[in-house]
Design brief:
The protein has 374 residues and is mainly α. 50% of the residues lie in helices and 9% in strands. The protein has 3 domains: 10-60, no CATH class; 69-159, Orthogonal Bundle (DNA polymerase, domain 1), CATH 1.10.150.130; 176-333 and 342-354, Orthogonal Bundle (hpI Integrase, Chain A), CATH 1.10.443.10. Strands 1-2-3 form a 3-stranded antiparallel sheet. Residues 67-147 form the Core-binding (CB) domain.
Length: 374
């Protein structure tokens, strides 16, 4: 039998002439190794298949009976932050979740029971529904990966119900008439171009405030950063969020006119710190989210349209784009959603809200009918 190539791992040729290899990916409850096998017609074919499995083999070096939950969560969170390019705020949330689960941290991974997890979530009942839901999703995802790499036979979170309590606010958006009313009220305000761009592109507010002039290249607008709470440029929400989007001619004209006005503003300003931002403050520095929100709410009241959050502009774009006939995939690509199903879920929520508002009582219906007759 030919010898294995150096550094190729457990590769060998079978009696039938085929090549085979295996890699240890974990251990079962009985302590025996769990192996993943690959086969091929040539040594090279098997070596390449084995190389794809080796990143998972590192977990096989862990003794599941000795590995504790806290150790796994720390390792999993660090690896995920590196591989997914998570934002600092998300990494900090992961650390917070680990702190909330600290009473379970010393529990051996293989001994973690659904009852223990349920008891811990019961102790966290005073937390907001949103925090408990995110904590549930964090732990479920970490333990799901532990199953995938062979550290657990089953995910104990499968026997733990999602946290209840509180209501999830449905996405809110404007219709076409309300968008027109808002833009009419905002016309002439220095932040009008930013709100206009958000409505025609579906940009997140942090992405809009982080745009630089070098990011705009004619019909293309490159989304490279988001503005952090510290008012510095940080990475986008996900790796897929960093991408170019195309602009229509009207939006390009709005940006061109805005650049001219900004040059005039910079020339007459007593103090200007240039950061190359498309939408800076009155002195050139990054905008404050609080000030933008205050301006947005004032313009909303002036336009006499329903109050929505700044993220509601993204939902408004989603609704208008789908109603205009764009496919879910086209809208998802523009929003930089990885899965078009997420785009459709948002739209379905918006439709449900419209149907809910259509549930008028008899007095209201009769009043509307009377108005039409007169």
């Amino acid at each position: 039998m030919p010898r294995r190539g150096k550094g190729e791992g457990s590769i060998f040729q079978r009696k039938d002439g085929r090549w085979a290899a295996f890699v240890t990916i974990g251990y079962g409850p009985d302590g025996k190794q769990r192996k993943r096998w690959v086969y091929g017609r040539t040594r090279r074919e098997v070596a390449e298949a084995l190389a794809r499995l080796l990143p998972r083999a590192g977990y096989g070096l862990i003794q599941p009976t000795r590995l504790r939950l806290g150790e796994w969560l720390e390792r999993w969170a660090d690896e995920r932050a590196r591989s997914k390019g998570l934002r600092p705020s998300t990494v900090q949330n992961y650390r917070n979740y680990q702190q909330l689960l600290k009473p379970l941290a010393a529990t051996p991974l293989t001994r973690l029971s659904p009852l223990a997890i349920r008891a811990r979530f019961a102790e966290l009942a005073e937390l907001s529904p949103s925090t408990r839901r995110h904590l549930y999703q964090f732990l479920r995802a970490a333990l799901r990966d532990a199953v995938r790499v062979g550290l657990l036979e089953a995910n104990p979170m499968d026997a733990v119900d999602p946290p209840t309590g509180g209501t999830v606010r449905p996405p809110r958006a404007w219709n076409r008439e309300q968008v027109s009313a808002f833009l009419a009220a905002a016309q002439g305000h220095r932040l009008y171009p930013m709100f206009y761009v958000m409505l025609t592109t579906g940009l997140r507010i942090g992405e809009a405030m982080a745009l630089r002039w070098q990011d705009w290249q004619g019909e293309k607008l490159w989304i490279r950063h988001t503005l952090t709470k510290q008012r510095t440029l940080g990475p986008t929400k996900t790796l897929g969020s960093s991408a170019p989007i195309y602009l229509d001619l009207a939006t390009q004209t709005i940006l061109s006119e805005h650049r001219t006005r900004q040059a005039e503003e910079r020339a007459t300003a007593k103090r200007w710190l240039d950061h190359d931002l498309i939408f800076p403050s009155e002195v050139g520095t990054p905008l404050s989210y609080r000030n933008v929100m205050r301006t947005f709410q004032a313009l909303t009241e002036q336009a006499k349209v329903p109050r929505i959050g700044l993220h509601g502009l993204r939902h408004t774009y989603t609704s208008m784009a789908l109603q205009a006939g764009l496919s879910p995939k086209q809208v998802a690509d523009r929003l930089r959603h990885k899965d078009p199903a997420l785009t459709l879920r948002i739209y379905q929520h918006l439709q449900e809200e419209d149907r809910r508002q259509a549930a008028l009582n008899l007095d209201t219906l009769l009043h509307l009918q009377k108005q039409r007759l007169t």
